[in-house]
Write a structure and sequence with these properties.
Length: about 140
């Protein structure tokens, strides 16, 4: 459950604080919203503008989550495309032992979630550690 900071002084829930502080997903957020509406004080119901504001916060958070996922996918595809474009080229990069290594890129792959290029010497270099590319 979210910390006290997610509940304002008037007892209402703040959607963005709940999502950030507890890592709740969409389903949990909607459950909280329904619970809030179910147990609200009938003498002081949630005003329409507050309800709409919470729904807008939810929509914004969901959109940001989708954008972040899209950027992650784009970054992986971009790294993969770059790695494949290096096949047949000489590179200088950091090898698995932390030392600079150079060689001809013969293939591309993914190791431990990182895009790598494989050199003719049998050494694998993470794309993010490439320092130089030669024709």
């Amino acid at each position: 459950m979210a910390g006290v900071s997610a509940v304002s002084s008037d007892g209402s829930l703040n959607a963005s604080q709940i999502m950030k502080s507890s890592g709740l997903d969409r389903t949990a957020f909607l459950r909280l919203l329904v619970t809030e509406l179910t147990y609200q004080d009938p003498m002081a119901p949630l005003e329409n503008k507050e309800f709409i504001a919470q729904l807008a916060q939810f929509s914004s958070l969901e959109a940001m989550e989708n954008i972040a996922h899209g950027f992650g996918t784009l970054a992986r595809v971009s790294n993969w495309t770059y790695a494949v474009s290096l096949i047949g080229k000489e590179i200088v990069g950091v090898g698995p032992d932390g030392e600079d290594v150079e060689g001809l890129v013969v293939s591309a792959g993914i190791e431990d979630g990182k895009v790598t290029v494989n050199l003719d010497q049998g050494v694998s270099v993470a794309v993010s550690t490439i320092k130089e590319v030669r024709g």
